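Example record used in the benchmark description.
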Amino acid sequence: MADKSARLPDISRALPVFPLPEVVLFPHAHLPLHIFEPRYRQMVDDLQQRDEPDRLLAMGTIMNGHNDDTLGDPPVFRIVGVGRLVESTRLPDGRYIVILRGIGRARLVNEVSGAHPYREFCATWVEETIASLASWRNGLATELKALALAAVRESGEKFRELIQRENDLSVLVDLISAYMPFSIDFKLVQLANPNVLGRTAHVISELEGRMAPQRGKRIKIDDDPTAN
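Model output (structure tokens):
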């Protein structure tokens, strides 16, 4: 589900898409980006001309086998994470360092051409589903949180703090999917699944499978997950 606290702008006409290999943006997660290609510098310039709620950008994960085609128009997966531009710094040579905050999932419908040099797609929001009692969701959130905290090293202090203070199951499973060092294929499956309970079961299974052969060893995670 998209960010419940935010008004969702219309993305059915032209949603800017930034294609990168092996990068997946999840709702509620922060993603720093280095923008250096001229057409995407213009994209950031254009976004900054919009009202803040409308500064939306989708991260298009480049399909396997096309990772070397980043300067062209490589095919991207159709389910994308949509983020809002929340911070940008223009460097002296014109490059940008920006930060996106994920606000929802979207499905790319078709590519729009001609209006801008950067890539744009018509898209639709993907609504997540969750059908269970609140008490059951709370129990799953507690189980998932404990498992994730047990899996990471003490060096992931900021990740641990982030997880410890979050109690919403939907947010929790997306943050864990975003910041833990799962494979890109795993992350893409998580992004494409609108069912919260399905995503939760997938993460729990993955964490349990990783921890079992480690015999108490913990998964290493960067100290600041927002800097990945």
